[in-house]
DNA sequence: CCTTGACCTTCCAGTTGCTGGAACCCTTAT
DNA sequence: ATAAGGGTTCCAGCAACTGGAAGGTCAAGG
């Protein structure tokens, strides 16, 4: 299979596939003309990584998951642990954004939004940043 | 004021302050020995940018906000517009993360998390990625 | 006067996860 | 023969810093 076929079928763009080869996720064969030749296993792996990425797993998470995926004797508990960790990170990001949202939304409500120059948003931004 | 003083008082690390100078946010004086010499205005601007960043404004947003901040005749409506746009982006990110969270959380619930190798999480990851 | 340590400086590289573009080769159809 | 549409490599760049190396400066202590 050529790269554009596997891109279409896996949903991962060619550029990204080359990148995933570069970082060692897949090792497709090469034809005599230098073209990459993908098999069904490559296809599965790419779809797997693509889906994991779209669920917010980092590249390093994917590396771990891919090992577990390749190891047919792994315990589901190991996978669950990685997934739980990812879920925690997602929750932390959501909480962070919701805090931001509350503050900003409050500021927007306070601002008249007219032609006058006085603006509570700018006034508030003069405070020290929120440390994290 | 030296860089570490202004870093402490503004809450923005020295490295980041140098970076902000590089991209033109501030233009502190220089002493004969080459050290940067910050005044109160620099301090205010740095705190302003730091706080805006912590509220999810991008660097480009900050550039716009800084102009509005410097322009004492600006209309508060202009500031409000930038802030509203930022709020929309934050909402979009939250929605995205919540979708991820729901899918992942569902998968985790489905997974026994024991010593056996069968795992609904891995099975599901084999599906095509979520396109966006 | 010398040393020590805490500052400060610049510059280069790395982070994350790709993405765009240039320059070039290969294949297939007309 | 040629043109379109594959494929290849390599280099650069995005955001927004952050770390580290190599070196200059300053104030205090022995």
Strand element count of chain A = 2
CATH class of the largest domain in chain A: Mainly Alpha
Order of helices and strands of chain A: HHEEHHHH
> What percentage of the residues of chain A does DSSP assign to strands (E)?
under 5%
Q: What labels describe this entry?
A:
132 residues, 6 helices, mainly alpha, homodimer, Multidrug-efflux Transporter Regulator, Chain: A, Domain 2, DNA-binding, two-stranded antiparallel sheet
Short description:
Chain A is mostly helical. Chain A is built from six helices and two strands.
Describe this structure in words.
The structure is a homodimer of 132-residue chains. The first copy, chain A, is mainly alpha-helical. Chain A has two domains: 1-74, Multidrug-efflux Transporter Regulator, Chain: A, Domain 2; 76-132. Helix content of chain A is 64%, strand content 3%. Chain A has six helices and two strands, in the order ααββαααα. Chain A has a two-stranded antiparallel sheet. In chain A, strand 1 and strand 2 (36-37) form a beta hairpin. The longest helix of chain A is centred in the C-terminal third of the chain and has 35 residues, at 76-110. In chain A, 28% of the residues are buried. The interface between A and B is large, with 61 and 62 residues. Chain A binds a DNA duplex (30 and 30 nucleotides) through helix 2.
Topology:
Two copies of one chain form a homodimer.
Chain A: H1 3-10, H2 14-22, E1 29-30, E2 36-37, H3 40-54, H4 59-70, H5 76-110, H6 120-125
Antiparallel strand pairs in A: 1-2
Helix pairs in contact in A: 1-3, 4-5
Chain A binds a DNA duplex (30 and 30 nucleotides) through residues 2-4, 13-16, 18-19, 23, 33-36, 53, 58-59.
């Amino acid at each position: 299979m050529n790269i554009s076929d596997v891109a279409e079928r896996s949903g991962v763009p060619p550029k990204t596939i080359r990148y995933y080869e570069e970082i060692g996720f897949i090792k497709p064969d090469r034809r005599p003309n230098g073209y990459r030749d993908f098999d069904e296993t490559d296809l599965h792996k790419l779809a797997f990584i693509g889906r994991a990425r779209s669920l917010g797993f980092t590249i390093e998470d994917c590396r771990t998951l891919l090992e577990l995926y390749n190891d047919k004797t792994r315990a589901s508990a190991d996978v669950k642990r990685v997934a739980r960790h990812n879920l925690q990170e997602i929750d932390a990001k959501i909480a962070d954004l919701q805090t931001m949202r509350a503050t900003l939304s409050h500021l927007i409500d306070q601002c008249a939004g007219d032609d006058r120059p006085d603006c509570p948003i700018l006034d508030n931004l003069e405070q020290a940043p929120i440390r994290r």
